[in-house]
Amino acid sequence: MKIKLTESLKEINGETMTISKEDKTPLTLGKALSSILNIPRERGNGSLDKMKSFILAVDCYSKDEIDLDEADFEKLKEVCKTDPYFAPSLSGQAHKMLLRFGPKKESDTDKK
């Protein structure tokens, strides 16, 4: 399934998120996913292996759109949903944005 990566994430107040206080470049879904994928995590249920995470992180950072099979799409959603490192306004919003691109599943809306 194709995922468009150019949409900007928003702050709680509706303003566009930026890369940093110094770099006012809008934080897109692609840049957010690239950052989330670049964080080391233990391999486990739903995780992507390191090489796949690296390749996907590079693609998310450098492309406007990626095409994933359903298995990798589900893993990417899970990585965003369970990310312990970034603020929920970033990883939670990235997860919510991904939901628009794939089939709806009951597990997408649970409140864990």
Would you kindly provide a written description of the structure presented here, covering whatever features stand out?
The chain has 112 residues and is mainly alpha-helical. The chain has 4 helices and 2 strands. It has helices at 29-37, 50-62, 70-81, 88-98, and strands at 2-4, 65-67. A two-stranded antiparallel sheet has the order 1-2. α1 (29-37) crosses α4 (88-98) and α3 (70-81) packs antiparallel against α4 (88-98). The longest helix has 13 residues, at 50-62. The radius of gyration is 13 Å and the shape is globular. The two termini are 26 Å apart.
Summed up:
With 112 residues, the protein is mainly alpha-helical. The chain has helices at 29-37, 50-62, 70-81, 88-98; strands at residues 2-4, 65-67. It contains 4 helices and 2 strands.
Features:
single chain; two-stranded antiparallel sheet; 112 residues; mainly alpha; 40% helix; 2 strands
- Cα-based radius of gyration, to the nearest Å: 13 Å
> How many distinct beta strands?
2
Structural class: mainly alpha
Proportion of β residues?
5-15%
Query: What is the overall shape?
Result: globular
Helix amount? 40-55%
Unreliable residue stretches:
none
Secondary structure topology:
Elements: E1 2-4, H1 29-37, H2 50-62, E2 65-67, H3 70-81, H4 88-98
Antiparallel strand pairs: 1-2
Helix pairs in contact: 1-2, 1-4, 3-4
